[in-house]
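Narrative of activities, Objective 1.

The group set out to show that a structural description can be obtained from nothing but a protein's sequence at a throughput compatible with the screening campaign. Below is one input-output pair from the validation batch, recorded exactly as produced.
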Amino acid sequence: MAIIKMHQLLIFSIMFCISYGQNNRLLPPKITEPDVEKTIYYKAQDEVILVCQAEANPQAQYEWMKDDQTIVSDYIKQDPITGELQIASLSRREIGKYQCFASNQIGTKTIKSMSPVITVDLAYLNSWVDTGLPPPRIQATEGEAVQLTCDDVPLCNPPGQFKWYKGNDESSEVVQDDRIAIDAEGTLHFVYVTKADELSGLNYQCAIFNRHLNSINLGSGKILEITKLNPIPDRAPSVLYSKPNQKALIGHYVDIQCIFGGKPIPSISWKNNELQAITSNSDKYEFIDTSRRILRVKNIQESDEGTFTCEGANTQTNTATTALNVTSRPIWEKSLSSITVAATRDASMTCQAKSVIRENPPGPPEWFENGAPIPNDKFDSGKYVFSNDKQILMVTNLVKPDDTTCFQCKVSNSEGFRFADGCLDVIEPIVITSRPPAVQEILKGDIVNLTVMAQTNSPWPIQYKWFFNNQTYDDKPPFVTYNETSKFAYINTEDLSFEDYRTINGTYIRMVYNVHEKINVTIQVILKEVGIVGPATAAAPDLWWIALIIGILLLVCVIVIICVVCRRKAQEGVYPLDKKERDNDLDPEKDLADSGFHDLSRADDNGMEKKGSPLQFTEEPLSYEDEDSLAEYGDGEDMGKFNEDGSFIGVYMDKKPPAPPVRNGNETQI
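Output recorded for this entry:
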């Protein structure tokens, strides 16, 4: 139990030290609120409170700016400790673009981070101007398409929603249906009118609604007078409303509207920019009402640019088109963000944006450090280097804490600008304290050294990972002996079979890393026996069978040569006569036969066994340095047994060698 408690205490102590180290590490400010650019609408005389918060060590101090200027106003209060900005009573003088700066001190340097831009705007809705003139009268006959325009629309911020009412009663709103519609500019459309649309002296009143103020104003009255027809004639579709060109912003949605007049009421169908029919709601398209007059294109992308077609059909057809222009402020490809990099390394701060297709690209980014333009001497000294048309800022040979800082960039195009902020935090690096030779040529029985050791003063612990011939190992590669505590790693090839030994050839990588840094130590193991180098081992074919084939071929060649030589020797057994010998009647073979030389050269068995008794050898070798042995076995000249031609047969191991053979005529006696 005591051991377990000590173990738990040790773990707690380590975690506390790591946490303490991280929590007490000097950190440049990282603003967490506000986190995105936005516009906030308030009513006049509203109290406005903007909040700025940042993670930092030491604690950050806060300052707000308005329209890129230091705030000097009795109507705007700000707290440098809490980061709050307060406007007691909003009026037009306080509307504008606000941006928060969070700063702290690291070493002798003041580090500043900047928030996204917050636009404070005033919501309002003006009234229609009373001209004192009577409302205009609109005359039509039954079956005709009629349009009542909304004239002299008052200012509304943000843009309001159009409605129509019968008379001045706000409870008598005109309901849109298959026959009645309101377009995006406020005009009231009747696909065709009937006598019932006449209000008997009452006006149709246009209205604009501001949802931020939750208020509505009425104006631009119209009197509609209808002439009755019986029967009401049919009419072909006519285009009452369609925008020929429309702008859409990347990532937003856009509503494309088509209104057709005609009797019977025309049905409406749509085709997208690729001439594909849109028949139902989907993730990309949505019909806003049952009449399908409004097609909503969601999550606008560059591929949505093109011409959309709507068609109205009853007994006849008519079409309208809208060219959709997809545009945007600069689109981030890689926004500037905060990074942590080890000292002695280089850091890349990237501010990369683009425009949509077929539009001019953004200009080069404007760069700032701690909220101010970067001084030129940083570039003159080579400490800072721009590349890729100023989209990448490289900070070279980092020094801790001198190079800890915050950068800002601003990218602009014809539609507006984007702003980003990111801080560079410099930490202590990982240092490799021990590494094995990068290339190790070994023979069977050698030790392969794979030990890699490292250390760092960073609060983040060092971790290790193995790779062998492009394969990752959670534990360790095959046949590697590894001690987790000491970090010793090796392969003892003496204990491996030859087949296992061949598999260790290749490239070993020891990755040493923490959450912010990674170092790869590469070791190539080359087996001298097979001559395969590095990572090619994994895919290299075995070569032993090639050597075997070559050996077999050489053996066959030797056998063939021996056979040829033996055959030639056999053919040379008959004495070849030249012309001179034949002319003198010389026949050496016949002379040899007549002399009986062949019979003399072949001993007759005379009934004796062809093979003599096998030779017997003693278990102890003779010592020629032992005089007693020489005396016992002779002087060495009589110790061997020889053939008649003098060739050596063997060694007699008995005390007295037998007498040499005696030749008697054609026989040999033993």
